Automatic annotation (TrEMBL):
Record's protein name: Glutamate-rich protein grpB
Organism superkingdom: Bacteria
InterPro entries xref list: GrpB/CoaE (IPR007344), NT_sf (IPR043519)
Native source species: Candidatus Roizmanbacteria bacterium GW2011_GWB1_40_7
Residues that span the membrane, as ranges: none
Family matches, as PANTHER family: GRPB DOMAIN PROTEIN (AFU_ORTHOLOGUE AFUA_1G01530) (PTHR34822), GRPB FAMILY PROTEIN (PTHR34822:SF1)
Pfam families: GrpB (PF04229)
Length: 357
């Protein structure tokens, strides 16, 4: 089912059992390395349905640093992996973003573990390429045709085979970036969410409004001239995560003047954005986020615009709540992806003058 002689190329039809083999190996690695591993993703052609692939399971393993990646060598070897500091067809410059461990003897390689810094460009590009081909069957078919053509010429030279796919891969990545329904910032944020984090959906709880009003009153007592707005699911009175999102609006250049008052109320900030400062805390069973944020920033304007669209359009609000309800069986990352796609769609329709009601 899997396994290929080192340095050679052979393509076989897609086998749905490859995803099962990936999950088995993923669990083995997680059991071995524990919290050292942030995330493991199935990449390469064995992760793309309906196209032929070399029968080797490729995995991206995300860790905090390459130093950690190198420190994993001994445990990898105990699992039957071999450390490969050099890969045919790749320069040292190309390999500086990963540490490669391969499983199986030279006559029958079965797994490639690409250990890299979680969320870096190497990580994001592999996932972007995979996800684009999963969603675009025409481009996936073109890739399959290219691979079939190359294997006929370079069956015994995997380095040259790999090198000759580079232009297609780079072109596909460019297509994916232009076609992506997500912004660069959204993609970066999704990359920081652990795969294991689960989505929790709870019915609307009116008690949250009382808590939110208390927090807002505290802010207004020290900053009476700032506009303060309760955003998110709570003021829309729909299902959510029992979280309270409060934004106090102030242009970035003026934020230092107000910082001390917020610090007195909420302590040291827990998050720092490009145009905002955030405080996270628990209050009476609710997760509260307070932001001192620039209302002229594009992300802030989009957030407020989405909130107003949902507040004023019952059909959109029902669609949004449905996304939340269906997220009960999803990971938090997948929920965020679907939410972002929904946000971006309605913002695009609004900007184009499409009637949304």
């Amino acid at each position: 089912m899997i396994g290929l002689k080192r340095g050679t190329v052979k393509l076989v039809p897609h086998n749905p059992k490859w995803s099962v083999l990936f999950e088995d190996e993923k669990q083995l690695l997680k059991n071995t390395f524990g919290n050292i591993i942030i995330s493991i993703e199935h990449i390469g052609s064995t992760a793309i349905p309906d196209i032929p692939a070399k029968p080797i399971i490729d995995m991206n393993i995300g860790v905090e640093s390459l130093e950690i990646a190198r420190s994993m060598k001994e445990k990898f070897e105990k699992l039957g992996y071999e450390y490969r500091p050099f890969v045919p067809g790749h320069t040292k410059e190309e390999l500086k973003w990963q540490e490669l461990y391969v499983k199986g003897p030279e006559a029958n390689r079965t797994h490639h573990a690409h250990v890299t810094v979680y969320g870096n460009n190497y990580w994001k590009n592999d996932l972007l390429f995979r996800d684009y081909l999963r969603k675009n069957s025409v481009r996936a078919k073109q890739y399959a045709e290219l691979k079939t053509e190359l294997v006929e010429k370079h069956a015994d030279d995997r380095g040259t085979y790999t090198k000759n796919k580079e232009q297609f891969i780079n072109d596909t990545l460019e297509m994916a970036r232009k076609d992506s329904p997500l912004t660069e910032g959204q993609i970066k944020y999704l990359a920081t969410i652990p795969d294991e984090k689960k989505m929790i959906v709870k019915p609307f709880n009116p008690r949250g409004l009382d808590i939110a009003n208390q927090v807002i009153a505290n802010i207004k007592s020290v900053e009476p001239n700032l506009e303060v707005l309760l955003l998110g699911s709570l003021p829309l009175k729909i299902s959510g995560q029992e979280d309270i999102d409060i934004s106090a609006f102030c242009i970035k250049s003026e934020q230092p003047k107000h910082f001390d008052n917020f610090k007195k109320l909420f302590g040291e900030p827990t998050r720092q954005g490009k145009n905002s400062i955030g405080w996270d805390f628990e209050k009476d069973g609710f997760s509260v986020s307070v932001w001192l944020t620039d209302p002229t920033a594009e992300t802030t304007k989009a957030q407020v615009e989405v909130f107003n669209l949902l507040k004023n359009n019952p059909e959109l609000l029902r669609e949004y709540e449905k996304i939340k309800e269906e997220a009960k069986d999803l990971s938090y990352k997948e929920y965020q992806r679907r939410k972002y796609e929904f946000y971006n769609r309605i913002l695009k329709e609004f900007a184009a003058g499409v009637k949304i009601q």
